[in-house]
Design goal:
There is one protein chain. The strands form two sheets. This protein has a six-stranded antiparallel β-barrel with strand order 1-8-11-10-9-12. The protein has helices at residues 2-23, 43-47, 52-60, 105-133, 139-164; strands at 62-75, 80-85, 92-93, 98-102, 167-169, 174-179, 186-187, 193-210, 222-226, 234-242, 252-259, 271-275. By secondary structure, it is of the alpha+beta class. Helix content is 33%, strand content 30%. The chain folds into two domains: 2-26 and 37-70 and 198-275, Elongation Factor Tu (Ef-tu), domain 3 (Beta Barrel); 105-164, Helix Hairpins. The protein has five helices and twelve strands. Helix 4 runs antiparallel to helix 5 (139-164).
Length: 278
Amino acid sequence: MRLFIRACLLAALAGETVAQDVSRPVPQSRSRTEPARPDPGIEPAARAGVPPRLIGRMGEGVSCMVEPHIVAEVGSHVDGVLERVAVERGDRVAKGQVVATIKSWVEQAEVELKKARVEFGKRKNERNEELFRQQLISEQEKDEMETEYRLNQAELKRELENLKLRTIVSPLDGVVVERYLSAGELIRTDKSKVLKLAQIDPLNVEVIAPLELFGSVKLGANYDVSLEPLVKGAHRAKVVIVDRVIDAASGTFGVRLELPNPDFRIPAGIRCRVRFGR
């Protein structure tokens, strides 16, 4: 996926560069007596200490791609038959929400059996405490019964954990991207994925930036991201990753920004532009 994003952004970047070279007007000669007019768009960047060769690139913006923050394929590593899938593609899910269950009649019966043995062992130990104080049973007999009680407790805990594996829960707050299996289908080692989930708050803004911007994009800084024409307006995103290794073949480096999306209004998988000059 990372290679695909890099290829898309590099293609867009190359197209922009060619278009700019072709459409750039030929500068007209200026009279020696005519004073140079300051560019209002360049002046703030110059005051911020940005090198002049970067000002044009930073003002134009760099192509980027909006991606989910996390993508997770959920399922179970235990064999069984799906009893229910509680969500459909496009549904919102919350962290810890039950999204699917596997038939667990045998496991539930095992849990009930272990619970009965633990309860019986507890009552037995309580009675034997009195018998031991009256010296009617030996210390060895008392120890054997206590050990049996602890073993039953451990087996109950194991069966409860096995039963939990039959319930599939969401590991994140997000949306359902894809549903692989339906109720009645078999889950096994080579077919264990049930759903693909994506966390889209915040969103990742992936940028393949030209080498000239290296050192000017600061970790923790906030920049404007344009999502037009799909979503109007500028959106502030925070830089969370700046690659420290340059791709020698293309002369680019990777940058990731986090874009808040609390109402899920912005979809993932769209192209965007980020302006590093503001």
